[in-house]
Amino acid sequence: MRSIANPARHIEIQGECHPRFSLVKDAFYRNFTERGEVGAAVAVTLDGESVVDLWAGFKDAAQTRLWESETIVCVQSVSKEIVALAVHMAVDRGLLDVDAPVVKYWPEFGQHGKEDTKLRWLLDHRAGIPITDHATPGMAYDWNAMIESLARTVPLWKPGTMPCYHSANYGFPLGEVLRRVTGKSVGAFVREEIASPLNVPCFIGLTPDEEKNVATFLDQETHPSSAWSLEGENIFAKSWKIFWDDEDFNSVGWRRAEIPSVNCHTNARALAKICGLMSLGGELGGVRLLSQSTLEKAGEVQWTGVDVQNRNLSLSLGFLMPLPGARVTSRKSMGMAGAGGATAFADPENRIGFGYTMNSMDPSLAKPRPAALQAALISSLGQ
Prior knowledge:
Elements: E1 5-6, E2 11-12, E3 14-17, H1 22-34, E4 39-46, E5 49-57, E6 73-74, H2 78-92, H3 119-123, H4 143-152, H5 171-182, H6 186-198, E7 202-204, H7 224-230, H8 235-239, H9 252-256, E8 264-266, H10 268-279, E9 283-284, E10 287-288, H11 292-298, E11 303-306, E12 312-315, E13 334-337, E14 343-347, E15 352-358, H12 368-380
Antiparallel strand pairs: 1-2, 3-5, 4-5, 4-15, 6-8, 7-8, 9-10, 11-12, 13-14, 14-15
C-alpha cells in the first residue's frame, strides 16, 4: 500500500492505484493541497477490475478522525442513480413497464391531473411534481406522510410536457412504485438486491451499527443550495420544505430514514463497483442485476437543455448524460452527481466504473474536485 504524504496538512493518500492511472492519484492529492478537500475517496474499475482505490483525509471538521477504507458518507443526489438502477431491475424482471401509467402500480397517485403520468416521466424528471403539496417540516422522514401527500399533489404543469429536476421528491414516488411491485421498501431493495449480491456498503436508511462508519457531512451552509432554500418562492426552496429547517445532513433522522432522492450512504469503491457492473451490461463477477438491453434503454436520452429551474442537463431514464461539448470518457457515460461533488458514472464504451465521495461540499457549482479527477481519468485513457 503506497502513501503520498503532505507534512503541512498531515495528509496521506491510502490505497492502491495502477501505474496507468497515476494521474488520477495526483489529481486526488491536489484536491487536498489545492482545492480544500477534507475527507474523500475515489475509485475506478476497468473491465470490472479495480484500478484505482484511494482514500485520504478526515471524517470530521476538527480533522481528528481519519478517513478509512470502509468509511461511508452521504452522497446526496447520487442516491437518484441508485434508485433508478433499482427501478430498472424491476423493469428487467417484468414487474414494471416504463410506458405504463403510474396508477397501474399505485392507484392512489391518480389524482388532480396525474392520472396519465407515465413511469417514464418519474424517471426522467418530467412528472411535474418537484414540489410536495401540503409540505410540513420533517415530512421527509415519514414515508407514509410523503406518499399520501404526493398522491394528493397537483402537478405544476401537465405531466410529460416540461423538464424539471426533482431535487427532493424524485426518489419517493419511484420508491413507492418499487414497493408496490416488490413488497420491499426502496431501502430494503437496495440493501438486499444490490448491496448484498455485490458485497458493497450502499444504504438508503442506516442501522445504528452502520452509522459508526459514517463521515460527518461538512460545509452545507457554504453551498449555494443553502441560499436557494432560503429564497422562499423558487421551486428548489419550496421542494426542500419537507426537511427540518436546521437539517445539516448528519441528524439521526436523516441517516436512518429512507429519503431516496438524497440520503444514500456509501463509498467510492462501492459506487465504482456498481457502475462497473453497469458498464459491463449488468453483470460483474458472476452477479447479474439486469440485462444489457434494459440498461441500453435506460441510457436513452429523453431530453437535453435548460429546465424550468435554469439547469442545463441531459437526462435519460434516471441518469445524467453528457451535455454537448462536455469533456467525458465517452458520450455513452451515464451516472449522477450530488450537491457538493459526489459523482458516479458508468461508461459502457470504455468499460469504466467511476466513484468519488467526499464530506466537504465544494462551494463552486463547477465542482473542480470531481472535474479534476475525471480529467485525469480521461488523460489516463489516452483521450
